[in-house]
Inverse folding.
């Protein structure tokens, strides 16, 4: 259409994972948590009253900022609430990037980054990971205004050590945004770096570890100066009253959070072992999904045959991800069904 800016007209747009309407399916295609959110979060939802809906919400979500600050051992001024982690990505692109200020990130990674670069009309410097998904050294010298590292990375599930991320933050002249959407399932995280580096932004999401993908809530952790700059860019009321109340209750319930995450991590390690027993190549995953590949059957065929059994996963046919399947870790029962189905498919 002639009405759009050129970059929008040419843009393909982000393609979200398929959300089937059927209830009686095993849905392991979009990395949701298989467990319900904290009962305290559900109670907070039930206790909301109409008055909270009539009024505008707190523009910065003070209750959540305070609760998250306590969890991370920082101040509320180091936290910004977002309408999902994706909102923080949009805000960061708007804050740091334009025609003359490129973004850089290692690939393959989260497919939303190039879409946002296009929207912002900024150049995207894409630096390939090696086969083991080590941090590419070339990332240091791109001169980008914004460098993004997804850690654990999607869809590889690989993890770059905190020490390496600290060196990267130290050497970059621009901002380093560390997308920690999956870090709840890893063994360590980079949140502590915001104390030492004034150019680091940590992205957190409540969609994965907290089982709140439908709520749309995420947040940034960064130096007070970075946060106050980012606050200027966000929509005035980017998180709604319902989301603030529910997310605050959820993050306060660290006990429940840890229990659920532990269950998922245990199931992930079991699923990895079971897939390897079926001769799949599976990378060690630090997230709530596994990336698997077999020489015995094309990924596309496995995907289709799983769909026939009402099991939904993702497959990729992208550079660096040829023939790979991504399976979100489900409940132990769901994972068993996937393994059973894969056994049948590979034997047929
Ligand atoms: C899920 C995800 C996010 C944020 O998702 P929200 O649902 O918007 O919080 C960010 N980065 C990656 C890599 C993700 O997978």
């Amino acid at each position: 259409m002639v009405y759009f800016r050129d970059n929008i007209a040419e843009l393909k747009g982000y393609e979200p994972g398929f959300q089937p309407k059927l209830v009686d399916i095993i849905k392991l295609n979009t990395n949701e948590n298989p467990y319900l959110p904290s009962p305290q979060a559900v109670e907070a939802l039930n206790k909301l009253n109409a008055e909270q809906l009539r009024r505008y919400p707190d523009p910065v979500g003070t209750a959540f900022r305070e609760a998250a600050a306590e969890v991370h051992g920082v101040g509320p001024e180091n936290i910004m609430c977002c309408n999902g982690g994706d909102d923080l990505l949009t805000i960061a692109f708007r804050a740091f990037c334009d025609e003359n200020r490129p973004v850089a990130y290692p690939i393959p990674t989260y497919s939303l980054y190039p879409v946002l670069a296009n929207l912002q009309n900024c150049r995207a410097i894409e630096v390939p990971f090696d086969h083991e998904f080590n941090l590419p050294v070339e990332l240091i010298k791109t001169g980008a205004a914004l460098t993004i590292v997804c850690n654990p990375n999607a869809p590889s599930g690989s993890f770059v050590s905190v020490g390496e991320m600290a060196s990267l933050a130290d050497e970059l002249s621009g901002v380093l945004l560390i997308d920690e959407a999956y870090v709840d399932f890893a063994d360590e995280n980079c949140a502590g770096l915001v104390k030492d580096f004034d150019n680091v932004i940590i992205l957190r999401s409540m969609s994965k570890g907290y089982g709140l993908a439908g709520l749309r809530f995420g947040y940034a952790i960064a130096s007070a100066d970075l946060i106050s700059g980012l606050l200027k860019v966000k929509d005035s009321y980017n998180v709604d009253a319902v989301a603030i109340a529910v997310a605050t209750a959820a993050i306060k319930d660290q006990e429940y959070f840890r229990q659920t995450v532990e269950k998922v991590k245990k199931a992930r390690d079991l699923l990895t072992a079971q897939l390897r027993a079926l001769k799949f190549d599976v990378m060690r995953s630090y997230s709530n999904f596994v990336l698997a590949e077999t020489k015995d059957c094309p990924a596309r065929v496995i995907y289709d045959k799983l769909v026939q059994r009402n099991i939904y996963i993702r497959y990729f046919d992208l550079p660096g991800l040829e023939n790979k399947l991504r399976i979100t870790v489900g409940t132990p029962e769901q994972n068993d069904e996937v393994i059973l189905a894969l056994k049948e498919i590979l034997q047929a």
